């Protein structure tokens, strides 16, 4: 009888303890601004990664977490910086099932080095103050987003004093929560294997093609194709819009002028056009972008239809990190992050988070490159793999 009792006790599920210090990647689904969003304002985010223990998925990705603002100070005159503090108190561990947590913000995509403290406070930095001929350069998280300048006339000269910027966290910005206390989740007695592979779609046979974009004449190769999308144009549009990506405008005099002035003023330019690249003599069919804190920084992807019958699309995704102006060209050229695999994986996570896409697998297309230059001569580095994502009809956006 005693042996049976011991055996029964061994079968009783035990609670799973997620230790303090665990990092949970998140994606902000709303904008948060210090000074504008007051203390106590609720903050909703979406988790972007699974919590795994012993090869079992304890908390699936693409659920939700709730928090609130605990510190909110807008920027002040004479360069006083803004300050923002967030705390998280609830985590969705299964769809519709919540658990109490204690967590702080520990990473933020657009935060400058040293702007995010161990206590979860984000500082916008300070704006320098100078007289005539001195360049005023904001140095914080959101300094390049919206800066008010007040001209002040003085008897001995002229000074320009800028307000210190508030902290702005953008919708779509990636961050992370660090648990400050252990999280206990009741064990349900089952294990969702982390390495489980779901056969979501059979990859159609691809025609032979050069897996890179090119300039208009086809004489200079450009960005490698690092994403393959399976589905209709409507499904692509629904998936990207579901996570806040915007359809890029077509180039025009008005659009280029807005982008140029936004770059000078270090302000964001929503749906700014992307430069035209070509595949088999055709310009991109679709282009989407996720705006960053200013016009210099954004995520974007150019997409071409590869197979009309099978609805196969190829995409070149990369991240803009600066702007290069050339007097002899009508449109500015963006400087990109050389490591394009980061943007490929960002696209995969965002499409899966929309509820409209699933990663099938990573494949290596014949002719793929691991090191190259784009049409503007910038260096590109990759592992040569292309992510294959199957899109499905999802109706309304499922992002919380």
DSSP helix count?
A: 4
The poorly predicted ranges are 1-12, 126-160
Beta-strand content estimate = 35-45%
Overall average pLDDT: 80
Structural class: mainly beta
Q: So what's the overall shape?
A: globular
Cα-based radius of gyration, to the nearest Å: 24 Å
- Helix proportion: 10-25%
The count of β-strands is 30
Largest sheet: 8 strands, mixed
Gap between N and C termini, in Å? 52 Å
Q: Give the tally of structural domains.
A: 2
Features:
400 residues; mainly beta; Lipocalin; 2 domains; eight-stranded mixed sheet; six-stranded antiparallel barrel; 4 helices; 30 strands; 12% helix; 39% strand; globular; disordered N terminus
Brief write-up:
This protein is 12% helix and 39% strand. It has 400 residues and is mostly beta strands.
Describe the structure.
With 400 residues, the protein is mainly β. The chain has two domains: 15-185, Lipocalin; 212-391, no CATH class. The protein is built from four helices and 30 strands. The strands form nine sheets. Strands 19, 20, 23, 24, 25, 26, 27 and 30 form an eight-stranded mixed β-sheet that branches. It starts with a helix and ends in a 9-residue tail after the last strand.
Furnish the topology, listing elements before pairings:
Elements: H1 2-11, E1 16-18, E2 23-28, E3 32-33, E4 42-47, E5 51-53, E6 56-59, E7 64-73, E8 83-94, E9 97-108, E10 121-123, E11 130-131, E12 149-154, E13 157-162, E14 168-169, E15 174-179, E16 183-185, E17 212-214, E18 221-224, E19 227-230, H2 233-242, E20 246-247, H3 253-265, E21 278-279, E22 282-283, E23 286-291, E24 297-307, E25 312-324, E26 333-336, H4 340-353, E27 357-363, E28 371-373, E29 379-381, E30 386-391
Parallel strand pairs: 19-30
Antiparallel strand pairs: 1-16, 2-4, 2-15, 3-14, 4-7, 5-6, 7-8, 8-9, 8-10, 9-15, 11-13, 12-13, 17-18, 19-25, 20-23, 21-22, 23-24, 24-25, 25-26, 27-30, 28-29
